[in-house]
Amino acid sequence: MDKEMFEIQITDEDIEWVKTIMPDIQLDECRIRILKNMESVDIHACPGSGKTTILVAKLAILSRRWKWSNRGICVLSHTNVAREEIEERLGSLSVGKRLLSYPHFIGTIQSFFDTFFAMPFLRSCGCPVNIVDTDYVVERRWGNIWTKTWLEAHGKDKYVCDPLELPYKLDVKLGEETTTYKNVVKSITESRRRGEFTFNEMELYATRGLECKAILSKLIQMRFPIIFIDEAQDTKRQIWELFDKIYEKPFYNSFYQAYGDSNQAIFNSYEKMEDVKHFPRANALQMLNSKRFVPEIAKLANGVALNESKMIGECLPFTKRDIKHTIFLFEEGAESVVIDKFADLIFESFTHEELVKYRKYGCHVLGMVHKSENTMGVSNYFADYNPEAKKQMPNKLIDYFWIAEEQMRQKGEFSIKVEYIAKGIYKLMRKYPLKEINRSSSAFNSILKTVQPENRKKIRTGLLEIMHMDWKTQNEWEIIITKILELLSEYIKKIEARNDEFLQWNGSEKTEEYENNNSLVNTKEYENTSGDKISLKFGSIHSSKGRTHLATLVVETKYYEYNLTSILPWLSGKSKKLGVRNTKRLKCHYVAMTRAKGLLCLAIPSKNVSVQDRRELEKFGWKLEMVK
């Protein structure tokens, strides 16, 4: 194994071959150097630089040359969305499909440490693992605590049931001999005995497993000589420490490479973001030229980048070469007028042909704060804004059905509908398992992998029947639920599941929205005198990550202080001493300001921008427009 691993090299011939299967790939000197590198190194890639494309190309080359039947390549990402993108792109390449099954592993970082560290360790200790889901588990634990008064009086909620350290270090100043402390510990203990764990606990048990079983590092390196980590900037410090422990001694010439952009480390909510100190490592390879946006946007976004490396925008220019990247300085009460001005500027900046060509990217209005209770948020600019419209983790099964229908309508693929509905059903199985619930590359396959082989045809047929059934009235929904529970009666605790709010009907409030063909919630429509139409989509900065827009407006919001106002010096290219909040603000607004291909705008209250500030902003390249 040792000698063979040293022989793996990516050659010029491999580079020419990958061009034939990925004809749209653009390879310059720095990207070829990244493709050929087979050492432990990080790749720091700016937005729109084609990071995932390069990773997929490298995986395709390695898949073509892989010789081992019991050792594989491991590809990890922070989110299921990123994982699914890699799987989809590999699946479109005949050689890439080999990586979608054993001995290779493509999954989230969480699933990797659960599967190969935490679960084996817990089971070796005689502890079952039936469900891993923070919200569900802490909700059940909290419900079993009968001494909540003191906790609630001190601002604590259900998340106090998620220990900071093993076995029971709680996020609360409470004596271990008190009745309340003992009550919380008892609830956690009983929950663990039932095989219920939070994501954080699984990370802690993965660490404990590595500490107790030193051989694990060697076994993992033998099993996965190469690990790639995508969206590495969102990885927590504790996870990097786990990787450091695994690779402290490279036994088999094994290595890991991490791909990401430290400027975009905003995955967690802005209250919990951590400084990225483990990524990128020293001597990282750089991808700083972006095909996403024009040079002017690259220059403006570089002002808020914490990393000193400067992006280069290489997007081809638009027909109108003098596009005005504008800061709207608005008076109090004119927030909605800003949106109208932005729409006018979009019509002014692009031709009819360009608006049609780039419609798929859309035009977006983003804010750092989008839930605006007693503060300034996105809803100040659009009164109909609903911050709950696009939950990443739906609270009810019927929401998975709504999302599935919307996605199929937008993309025209039944497989997308199948997978979204399967995600909801799989979540139900994990909440109320009668037997061990298995995991696979997709929710649909996870369900089939869980059931007995002789039942798989029946379950597959039944699930597909459910996905074709009507469900938009309460009676129809009850029939759906009965069908699901009967079909999976050997795997789901029917009585407990039936009483869970997760299965309740709430479709009536959404029926009008969807049946009026207005699935694009949080959208405002505009049409100019020439008949051109655009839709402005409103959302949080976090929801825009990884996306490309035609035009972006970033609006002022408030988190303790005004967010954009607080970073005015950086918006004009003048960096100042950083505090914790401004570090978080810069990361968020860097993400927001690197979405647009052709037009970038900001909206800031005029009272917050001095005459000197305005001079500096204009000097840096912004056009200022007053809005009353």
Largest sheet: 7 strands, mixed
Kindly state the mean pLDDT as a whole number?
85
Instruction: Report, as a whole number of angstroms, the end-to-end distance.
Output: 71 Å
Share of helix, binned = 40-55%
Percentage beta strand: 5-15%
C-alpha Rg (nearest Å): 26 Å
Uncertain segments are: 267-275, 508-519
Number of strands: 19
| Helical run tally | 26
Largest sheet, spatial ordering of strands: 13-14-12-15-18-11-19
What best-fitting shape do the alpha-carbon axes yield? globular
The computed structural class is alpha/beta
What topology emerges from the helices and strands here?
Elements: H1 2-6, H2 12-21, H3 29-36, E1 42-45, H4 51-65, E2 73-77, H5 80-91, E3 105-108, H6 109-124, E4 131-132, H7 134-143, H8 149-153, H9 179-193, E5 196-197, H10 199-212, H11 215-223, E6 226-229, H12 237-246, E7 255-260, E8 285-287, E9 289-290, H13 295-302, E10 312-313, E11 326-330, H14 335-349, H15 352-357, E12 363-367, H16 397-411, H17 414-431, H18 443-450, H19 456-468, H20 474-487, H21 494-498, H22 508-515, E13 523-527, E14 533-540, E15 549-555, E16 558-559, E17 561-562, H23 563-566, H24 568-571, H25 580-592, E18 596-605, H26 611-620, E19 623-627
Parallel strand pairs: 1-7, 1-8, 2-3, 2-6, 4-5, 6-7, 9-10, 11-18, 11-19, 12-14, 12-15, 15-18
Antiparallel strand pairs: 13-14, 16-17
Helix pairs in contact: 2-4, 3-4, 6-10, 7-9, 10-12, 16-17, 17-18, 19-20
